[in-house]
Amino acid sequence: MEQEQAMEVHAKTLVAFPDEKGDLKISIMLDNLLYVESADNYATIYYLNKSKKSHYLIRNSLKWMEEHLTKDTPLIRCHRSYIVNLDKVKILKKEKGGIMLELDAENTPDIAVSKTYYDSFMQKFSRYSV
Q: Residue 19 is part of a domain; what is its CATH number?
């Protein structure tokens, strides 16, 4: 099965995460997905499971996920190392170092919006904000 076929957002907003070979590893309801953090060719998917923060390590690149995950979803790349779920952003604040995001989950670090992704992030964010 090709990765493109495996990665789709269903009517129930279930997001499927395949590994680099295209094998499905985990599916998460979009409502429970917080953010994805990358390190080299691995990504850690952070999500809520029974109201507690959980994570799952997968071998796949953030670039691939950005290309296949962020279309028609509230997911957006905001940093070289992060994709966030805009539905989980509680506070967006401007600080000396730039824009920081606070997510709507306990024990979640603030995530920076880097200069590289600022324009595309703000464009999508403005469509999601009232």
A: 2.40.50.1020
